[in-house]
Amino acid sequence: MSPPAPGSLTPVAGGAEFPGAPAPLACEGGPAGMACVPAGPFLRGSDDGPEHARPAARVWLQTYYMDLNEVTYAEYKACVKARKCDPSGPGYTDFDRPRQPINGIRWFDADKYCRAMGKQLPTEAQWEKAARGPDGALHPWGDEPATCERAIIKDGSGRSCGVKKLYSKPDTGRPFEVGSRPAYRYGLYDMAGNSWEWVADWYAKDYATCGAECAGVDPRGPCGGAEPCTGYRRKIVRGGSWYWDAAHATAIYRRSHYPENQPFHHFGFRCAASPEQAAGLRAAASTAPPAGASSPGG
Ligand SMILES: [Ca+2]
Question: Rounded to two decimals, what is the model's pTM?
């Protein structure tokens, strides 16, 4: 690709460092409940953090959109009621408040929900860039460790910042309602802590092992995320949770688990959208009938 002429408004693609990068697409704003993460490189992984996050490398991502919040219990159950999602959920006391993150679901349930919404699970790289921004910050707010002022985690006062779930015995804590802490970069909430979040990729034990499929432009991890993926049986959750301490609530910490969620864990998720998906969502919103209107032809 030849460089743009001086003064040209042609967006600069990946250049020599990312020769396969497409032309960056502009952030269009919205769709409702989503934030735009603009195209470009970011620093993914770490050379001195957890071994599973090594090595650090620059990765280029096209523009994409992220849900502002973890998908809530009420949102997931509405999808089930509409017969677009499979019944699933926490099955424990005090995990079923409408604005708590849906929790205790399979990776397949999360994937199906996002598709039903015209979205998709974020790739692991998309999740990480949304959490840390372009320049390698270790957390969604910068490099300072997580505290209960910033995120719902386990701290010195206990799990979920010392708030016990109702009737809890023993004290295992519970997620808070989404958005209980200040928004982070890109306006996103709870990227650190509250609920772990499933991402699309299969888990490779570190980025060196993953190799080319975790490098370059819009990586999707082993097998490009497709099923089945020989030699890979576990997906990934990100961001830590109310149950774990600050060391897990970073932008780089990776935890793996089986997509069937067996044995059972309290994982949640949020969805992402490609520019094409976002355009579809905006178009659908602009043509939706006003609330209470009957649909044409009944
Ligand atoms: Ca979270």
Answer: 0.92
